[in-house]
Amino acid sequence: MKLKVFKQESLEQLKRDASKQIDLYQRTTPWLNEYFRGGAYYCETQINLPDNLSLLTEGEPSDTDKENSKRIYEAFRGRINPVQAAEERLWTYLCHETFWDYMIWRWPPKKEGTIISRYFFDGESSRALSRNGISRLWWFAHLTYDESRNDPYELTNILLYSQDIQHNLLERNFGRNRTILHTVLDFLRVHPEIKGKEQYVKIVKTLNRLGGVRLLDALGPERIKEYIESKILNR
Amino acid sequence: MKTTERFPYPVLSAFSDDIENSTFESTVIYQTDKKDYRFTYTITLHNSTIIQLLKEHRAVLALHFECGRTFFREKYKIEDITWSDCITISGTIVIPWSRICGKTEISAFIYADDVIENYHPEGLHPDYQQTTFTMRPGEILATSGPVILDVYSDYEPIQKPDSIIVFKLDKERETGEIHINLNSDKIEVSLPKNMFDKYEALRTDKQKEGIITSLLGIPVLMEGLRFIKETVDENLSENRRYRWFRSLEKKLLEMGINIKNEENTFEAAQRVFENPYMRAADDFEKMDRL
Lengths: 235, 290
Description:
By secondary structure, chain A is mainly alpha-helical. Chain A has helices spanning 8-17, 32-35, 65-76, 88-98, 100-106, 112-119, 126-129, 135-144, 154-159, 163-170, 178-190, 197-213, 221-232; strands spanning 2-6, 42-48. In chain A, strands 1-2 form a two-stranded antiparallel sheet. Helices cover 27% and strands 31% of the residues of chain B. Chain B has helices at 48-55, 193-203, 209-230, 236-239, 243-254, 265-272, 276-289, and strands at 23-32, 36-46, 59-67, 72-77, 87-96, 102-112, 116-119, 133-135, 140-151, 165-169, 179-181, 187-191. Classes of the chains: A mainly alpha, B alpha+beta. The A-B interface holds A 8-9, 12, 37, 39, 81-86, 124-126, 129, 139, 143, 170, 173-177, 212-219, 223 and B 1, 4, 7-9, 60, 62, 64, 66, 68-75, 97-103, 109, 111, 113, 136-140, 166, 168, 171, 181, 183-186, 188, 237-238, 241.
């Protein structure tokens, strides 16, 4: 199937009206055609997606993020770049049409805040990308994919082991640096006993403290790892 | 990247007088080519101790790029330096369009790449007396910036009003006023049905194009100009995501118009659309001759 994206003006209209259209978000099937009264609200791109692309919609919702992240990333791999993957028109269309079933299951649109942050982009920063219901799946895999590992998604699995990990790492500026992010995730892989929100917050605080006086980006993975070990494992 | 302004060691920077009679400054501009952004930087450093540390490869000069919109955060080491007492380094860093978009922060750093014992830079403020410091890898010796640029690859020159303004039918209304929406890639002008039908008929008539521009285009453009004029610095990046905003800003720059200093947007709008009222008068004259 050809990937479709919203026209900018249609996206703006839908977003503007979102707070007045909570009823539409309670429906079990997509409703865009009806809302736009048959008008041309999307553009078809030249990007082909697999026809059989679907997302898991059974089990504990947050447990499906690992598998769904891989499915979305594989479907888009080599077809979009990071700038395209920061396009609200793309992900918002997928949220409202292609993956509507998944969206209402994973992110029940009961409150206006949930609709804006999970079905649209709430703001311009990378935080919006890690919140939108579908874009987050692509970005989780993109930021952690590592071809040099036997399982390239090994770090994706660590990131999504707990919502607290991705929340703490990706909503901090240092999480944008691939070396830092991968080093922290690898530390958690090697030390599975380090778990729980308190521990993750402690790691983030440790890195923030270090980043306050040093340029974290200038430190290689070994130095970052040594520092985390010394503070978290008290070595 | 914003850093703290209170380091536990002396840092050469614009925000501190830790190190006197020294300079570390940077400027960065960008251009686009077919697939890349080309960031051209000029960095000036005047401090003999830090220059010596760079020469000995015990410190590193780098530019740090961060784009919040695409999870991009990279540092680029600058190594091709011609040494003298005061060094000025210029160069270009190329980043593909596919990696960054919108607000991008660029900071220059010199950081320790090794343990530096007995650090006591030239020009250290007298308050420090004979104090020396042990600088550890990653600790910052000098910082400048950030320079914040709004980078976009898709600049569209304004050829005619249509390129930044779109007139559309407001299906909700049969009659009423014209509405305008500035929060979109083009300035959207919504006309109720009865007006839209008439406008469409006029618009397709080439002879009346100048009249339509004056009648509808100018007041709409004035709203756009007013929006730019009233945009405060902290909202610039957000508003530049709209293509019409970027195009109009660039057009004003090319024409040497500083909209913040313009008394009224009416005159500026006429200059942007290149004397539309004279063209409208010409159109009327032609119609009279027929």
